[in-house]
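quick one, two chains, predict together pls
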Amino acid sequence: MAVGSSKITPLQVVQGVRIGVANAGIKQTERPDVVVFEIDSQASVAGVFTKNAFCAAPVHIAKKHLAVAENQGRARYLLVNTGNANAGTGQQGMLDGELCCEQLAKKVDARASQVLPFSTGVIGELLPTDKIISVLDTAIGSLEADNWENAARGILTTDTRIKGHSIAFEYQGKTITMTGISKGSGMIKPNMATMLGYVACDAEISPDLLQTLLSNASNKSFNRITVDGDTSTNDACMLIATGKSGVQVSEQNPELLNLFVTHLETLMLEIALQIVRDGEGATKLVQVVCEGANSTEEALQVAYTVAHSPLVKTALFASDANWGRILAAVGRSGVENLNVDALQIYLGDVCIVENGGRAVNYTEEAGSAVMKKEEILIRICLNRGAVEDTVWTTDLSYDYVSINADYRS
Amino acid sequence: MAVGSSKITPLQVVQGVRIGVANAGIKQTERPDVVVFEIDSQASVAGVFTKNAFCAAPVHIAKKHLAVAENQGRARYLLVNTGNANAGTGQQGMLDGELCCEQLAKKVDARASQVLPFSTGVIGELLPTDKIISVLDTAIGSLEADNWENAARGILTTDTRIKGHSIAFEYQGKTITMTGISKGSGMIKPNMATMLGYVACDAEISPDLLQTLLSNASNKSFNRITVDGDTSTNDACMLIATGKSGVQVSEQNPELLNLFVTHLETLMLEIALQIVRDGEGATKLVQVVCEGANSTEEALQVAYTVAHSPLVKTALFASDANWGRILAAVGRSGVENLNVDALQIYLGDVCIVENGGRAVNYTEEAGSAVMKKEEILIRICLNRGAVEDTVWTTDLSYDYVSINADYRS
């Protein structure tokens, strides 16, 4: 199951990035499971990674390679495999990840530290390095600029749809193009999830600024989505700026910088929401807004408590306007000195809670009408401050249980 | 579904407590849905209540009545209804709750403040006071000492089993008897849940000491169980000490006090675990122990993150030794500076994680053998401190979704 249309915009070429794919048979499917990105030597590369204490070997390696001084915030290759997360694999996992980087580097005449590895799939099994290495020539041989859709397919695991989006915009007669793809379906929670994202643009941006832009945009997109509250050991989102458009984005040009940020956030939110729409077993896309909070922490505390509540999520699945469960979730969110008489809760435009109880004008019909929709807005107004934040989630269906009870069998 | 046997020990009479039941037809079942406890005028009564900010009208009223100075920590009647939680009902809910207390008080010649009300069921609908009041005479007319099993049945909602336990022990030739019943199945989390508990004993205990004993024992039982992480607006656990045994429990007699505490904790843990075994859709009883923590907070942070993880819970349902999901949950639990190389994770006696990855001697067969059992122990050794704590939970099954997607329909 998934929410809404599976159609995505055509994925546009970004000059300075070529992509190759291959099927190493890591997981027995006919889908490609190895993807190689080749990045122009002048490009800047930034990354954000999972905060899980058990972060996987490829995350350790990618962070380390990205920080190698002589690379100066650049990387030449991204090597992605699905089917095996190379997580919980201890020292052998590190050796295996490094080995794959070295083998790819040797074939393309680069340094191993210029290759960043990414793995997603089952945790705790050793990476089948032989299988991956054996298809590197195939992947390299298929490198093409117009290969984003194959890449989007090649990074999927339990996803039922490919995820991607492109935006092109003009600035002083020149066109800047950005294209991004993502994968993720379960184990989705802030601070990245079983989530991989690759976004490239042809603007010229310094590595430091690029890292800042990526971190900020992640906090408005990938770090605000949640399917089941579980965060993964492997999540990463990479942002590449090739400079091939000849347009330079920098803090010296705030107008262009703002324009770029707006488009980047739009693109990243779009591919993040595609993940939520394809959430495991999802039948609804649910936006939870908490406004009038004293701080971002407080707003997120409330929004996530509602978004993670199994009782709220099963009610959403049943299209049941069981607003009492939303109220109970807000009540247990742990906000200090919460004045329940002062807050309101809305389902779409329908006020469901005010003055500590069911809103006077609320009717079951009005609530049900909202709950029947495929995309639902839950809005909590705390009325105690000026901060607002938003998270996106799904409902909890039979299929979520089915997918996750059967995943390894 | 439920875990283990549904048999409970015979529930013994506690002198000084009589119980009456009636069917008010609040929810259309043939089960009684109104229960009245009559308590001896010399008895002490203590209570612990939900910490949900949206706590229900009966919780407000029960706390207020218990605190009325002239009652001196005593109450004469407990009035329980199921089918309607009188929560999220605003000012009218308070009036309705008080009305029921007044009506009962009038019939038994007590003050309204000597009656403590308890409600559980659907949130946000006004309490059908007429229905409740109309059966008060029936409930009063059926007051009997040997009525605990009917009471246990009368307080159920989505539960599939009655829950109760009795313990009797000797001290210097005299017998102390304690009997408790509970209800709860979903919306179960620490700080009480859609959980009601009523425990009575015939020891003589001052109200202040009784309150301390109840709070402490709750933190080793009811406040350590979780089915879905949702906490309710209505939870309460009451402890009654009638004094009818003629045995006085006080701080002046530490030997007897310790003996009493041990038995009270045993009884409360038993009726708490009966709730978990009957958790909505439960097929497993799962004990999560975190040891070697620096603090109780840290131990609980880890234990609850594992216990609430939908991915861990679906793997438990599938009897899948997907230890990677346990590892990932520990990794995201938010413990500061967690050294993943120093910790171990066990499934039963089987070490599954050490040195940052899968334990060297671990085999899938050994893990599967543990996961196939109906009662499963997950033990996480952080190896950074001396504190240990435990929580109990269930798996996440199709039936959990089914029960909660259909509850109001």
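Chain B touches chain A through 66 residues (CB under 8 Å).
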